[in-house]
Amino acid sequence: MLLVKNGRVVDPARNTDASMDLLLDNEKIVEIAQPGKISSNGFEVFDASGLVVAPGFIDLHAHLREPGQESSETIESGTRAAARGGFTAVCCMPNTKPVNDSASVTGFILDRAKTSGSVRVWPIGAASVGSKGEGIAEIAAMKQAGIVAVSDDGKPIATAKLARQVMDYCRSLDIPVIEHAEDVSLAAGAVMREGVTSTRLGLAGMPAAAESVCVARDVQLAELTGARLHIAHLSAKGSLEQVRSAKQRGLRVSCEVTPHHFTLIDEDVQYDSRYKMNPPLAAREDREALLAGLADGTVDAIATDHAPHEPALKDVEFDRAPFGITGFETALSLALEQLVHTGRVPLMRMVELFTSGPARVLGLERTIAAGRPADVTIFSLDRPWNFQAAEYESKSRNSPFDQRSFKGGPVATIVAGRFVHKT
Amino acid sequence: MTHRFRDLLALEPLTADELTFLLDQSKPFQEIQKHPLKKLATLRGKTVALAFFESSTRTRISFGTAASRLGADTMNLQAEASSLKKGESLLDTVHTLDAMKPDCLVMRHAASGAADFVARHLDIPVINAGDGTHEHPSQGLLDALTIRDRKGRIDNLNVTILGDIQHSRVARSNIHMLGKFGCRFTLCGPAMWVPRELEQIAPRASIRRVFQVEEALEDADVVVVLRVQTERLHEPALSASDYILLYQLNRERLLRAKPDAVVLHPGPMNRGVEISPEVADGPQSCVLDQVTNGIAVRMALLFLLSAGHNEEGSHPVNDVQQPRNRRATDVKDPSHASR
């Protein structure tokens, strides 16, 4: 039994923000009570004075690279990084080698997570066989094996017709479709967002419409099919406006935004491949729109799109570098820096974006209450620290935030009543 | 004058004073080109690595000639002969070259930012001889030198650039060079080759887009005609006959420019496509001067960057100019190389 004392419990699902003590066993939250009401006799005690105690954070979007690209990340190293970043559950995208398009690959991932994972791993299955955009993958069998959603992430579901079929099927299976929205013809050859910076640097750019054209397609198909559609790593103002309008029309459409898209913009790109990801860093006005969407509820979740690549892959000409940056270990601190410390987003809402927000996308609840899973994220609002990519848990170092100083960040991460990270 | 350059990767970050310094440093090397014997010993014992990861004839020969006229040895790497096809990374390739101990690396590469990337990893000076669609700084300098010689100045000129500006590293270097001197730019070509973002790539320069070639040439002091490139993909491709119809610089169109306007082309020219033969060979054309000046500019760059001459000192060719009958090869003071 673990007693977490004197923490400031922030639980958006119950609109709670109060000093409370929690008693956890190795499965559930046993009791929640006023400070000092639970006797600490014989229990392990964690003093959370001055810290925020939140429901366990969920990351809807990560690449753990196992099976197939273990030199960049493994389930073991990736989940250690996630734990260090305050995440208690991580949804891993299916673009592994082989692609997670079958119950056997799903089973492999869950087995590895059970034996070597620090946090919960919730696999996302491929929407199409091999994510090739031809036939529908064995979604029902994967759902039985444990996937929480489907996606062809890394690329969109190839055609409108297939997207429609996948949405129809997933509606009947009651599982969300997560879409990497990109018109691949508009984005062909591009390595960053089209704009003054791409023009100045002579780098091929994709317009914002490369994303929003595909969001338009998918929102209309969600309307046609009644499916639960979730837009991954949304980056453009025009895409956000479509999600906002879809929500107003009552469609089951949600979206996530990454910390790098609400922190950086295309002007930050200087031929440094740590600034290369897809969707690329967007324009200043897009970032402003995302910050507004994070504040007003249009955005459902902050997701990292943690995309580790070993140095040999990333340390090449900008044009040749693969897309993607790591994200677990800096996500919360960037959210504090950009959203909370600036006064743009209340703390309660920020916690929602990491907890009940992503949970709702998956059809789950996330709250601190007796009988709920003993997954808890404890963080500081003001403790200074410096991120050193080389010294952290991910096997890869491709972060534009290397050496950045932060105010506040993860302190302890509890999964099933046990510390998986504690500073 | 001291200079702060270790590398020459782009003209964009340089100030007007620094650019003027580079042009002034090229001046004595222009004189050398007129001597019957053109070889100096300034860089004797130095080695210049020429790494061309993208095909090039004139720029490679120009840098090679510049190095040889300074007395330097060269190492040549060409992409088709290199191990790149065997899957070696750019970084491994340039580290290998670096291990052969050149004093300077001149590189061309098809990826924008490649020279910048390499310079971050090597300790020797890197000269960008063209990176993708980003910059071609030595071309920007030699164009400015050519204009300064013909017009007596490079400030406050009306410069019209014709062609696929979006994919032109020459146009970017021209803009970043001449823009620092108050030149006003008119960019002209089909709209998909002249996106509106180009108007903002040099915040302090006046840049406008015009889609009619006749209007674009009005009052021009300088006309830069870009090669319509067949080897690199134009996005999207445009029919050559449409291009000729709409944008070819011919004698009649050139009449719209100022009577003393000069015409530049970075070469190689497609005669009869982007430029008509009578303009290419006419009195306003500077095309061959550009080629000659290219050697002078590149000699100055190699001298400044690979000789370690970044403190006060006399110019190596000053000695050459004094007695009319003294030959360039008489300058053998080894202190030039060791300073």
Helix-strand blueprint:
The complex is a heterodimer of chains A (423) and B (339).
Chain A: E1 2-11, E2 16-24, E3 29-33, E4 44-47, E5 52-55, E6 57-62, H1 75-84, E7 87-92, H2 103-116, E8 120-125, H3 139-145, E9 149-150, H4 160-173, E10 177-179, H5 184-187, E11 192-193, H6 196-201, E12 205-206, H7 209-225, E13 229-231, H8 237-248, E14 253-257, H9 259-263, H10 284-296, E15 301-302, H11 311-314, H12 331-340, H13 347-354, H14 356-361, E16 376-386, E17 405-415, E18 418-422
Parallel strand pairs in A: 1-4, 1-5, 6-7, 7-8, 8-9, 10-13, 11-12, 13-14, 14-15
Antiparallel strand pairs in A: 1-2, 2-3, 5-16, 16-17, 17-18
Helix pairs in contact in A: 2-3, 4-7, 7-8
Chain B: H1 16-32, E1 47-52, H2 58-69, E2 73-78, H3 90-99, E3 104-109, H4 114-121, E4 126-131, H5 137-151, E5 158-162, H6 169-178, E6 184-188, E7 206-210, H7 213-217, E8 222-225, H8 240-247, H9 251-254, E9 262-264, H10 277-280, H11 287-306, H12 318-321, H13 335-338
Parallel strand pairs in B: 1-2, 1-3, 3-4, 5-6, 5-8, 6-7, 8-9
Helix pairs in contact in B: 1-5, 1-11, 2-11, 5-6, 5-11
Protein architecture, described:
The complex is a heterodimer of chains A (423) and B (339). By secondary structure, chain A is α/β, with parallel strands linked by helices. Chain A has 2 domains: 2-52 and 372-422, Urease, subunit C, domain 1 (Roll), CATH 2.30.40; 57-361, TIM Barrel. Chain A contains 14 helices and 18 strands. Chain A has helices spanning 75-84, 103-116, 139-145, 160-173, 184-187, 196-201, 209-225, 237-248, 259-263, 284-296, 311-314, 331-340, 347-354, 356-361, and strands at residues 2-11, 16-24, 29-33, 44-47, 52-55, 57-62, 87-92, 120-125, 149-150, 177-179, 192-193, 205-206, 229-231, 253-257, 301-302, 376-386, 405-415, 418-422. In chain A, the strands form 4 sheets. In chain A, strands 1, 2, 3, 4, 5, 16, 17 and 18 form an 8-stranded mixed β-sheet that branches. In chain A, strand 2 and strand 3 (29-33) form a beta hairpin. In chain A, helix 2 packs parallel to helix 3 (139-145) and helix 4 (160-173) packs across helix 7. Chain A is globular, with a radius of gyration of 20 Å. In chain A, 61% of the residues are buried. In chain B, the strands form 2 sheets. Chain B has a 5-stranded parallel β-sheet with strand order 7-6-5-8-9. In chain B, helix 4 links the parallel strand 3 (104-109) and strand 4 (126-131). Chain B is built from 13 helices and 9 strands. In chain B, helix 2 (58-69) crosses helix 11 (287-306) and helix 5 packs across helix 6 (169-178). Mean pLDDT of chain B is 88; it is low at 309-313 and 319-339. Chain B starts with 15 loop residues before the first helix and ends with a helix. By secondary structure, chain B is an alpha/beta fold. Chain B folds into 2 domains: 16-135 and 293-338, 3-Layer(aba) Sandwich (Rossmann fold), CATH 3.40.50; 137-289, Rossmann fold (3-Layer(aba) Sandwich). Chains A and B meet through helix 6 of A and helix 4 of B.
